[in-house]
Hints:
The protein is built from 5 helices and no strands. The protein is globular and about 40 Å long. The protein has helices spanning 8-28, 36-44, 47-50, 55-63, 67-80. The relative contact order is 0.13. This is Post-transcriptional regulator.
Amino acid sequence: MESEQWNHDELSAEIDAMCRSKAEEFRLLGYEYVTAKDIWDCISRNYAKEGTPPLHKLVNDIYSLKANSYMNYLTIAAYRGLN
């Protein structure tokens, strides 16, 4: 079976769709103001030193993000003045 090749625009669109899906999940849990950009900022903070991970890890990081981890990220970002 051939490996599917993704161009940058297709990959960005898919990542954005995953982040929007996760943001919608958080809104259903009562976190009304979460956006796809917020999810991406939370997830991508880990990639600053390591670089972008393989696609399967990226997908797993987005879909396995828990509300508690996201709230911890927001708290630390507020203390650091990143928000």
